[in-house]
């Protein structure tokens, strides 16, 4: 299994557990820190 495959698999697992809103919240926090 490549790093890409492992990352994709891990991301899908997190999405199943927490939903897409979780990723949106992470993105929002990252955008606030970098600006």
Description:
With 35 residues, the protein is mostly helical. It has one domain. The chain has two helices and no strands. The chain has helices spanning 3-18, 20-34. The radius of gyration is 12 Å and the shape is flat. The mean pLDDT is 88. Residues 1-28 have a biased composition (Basic and acidic residues). Residues 1-35 are annotated as: Disordered. This is General stress protein B. It comes from Alkalihalophilus pseudofirmus (strain ATCC BAA-2126 / JCM 17055 / OF4) (Bacillus pseudofirmus).
Layout of helices and strands, plus pairs?
Layout: H1 3-18, H2 20-34
**Regions with pLDDT < 50 over 5+ consecutive residues?**
none
| Main β sheet profile | none
What is the overall pLDDT average? 88
User: How many beta-strand runs?
Assistant: 0
Summed up, the domain count is 1
Features:
single chain, 35 residues, mainly alpha, flat, General stress protein B
């Amino acid at each position: 299994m490549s790093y890409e495959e492992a990352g994709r698999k891990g991301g899908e697992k997190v999405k199943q557990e927490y939903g897409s809103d979780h990723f949106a919240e992470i993105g929002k926090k990252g955008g606030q820190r970098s600006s």
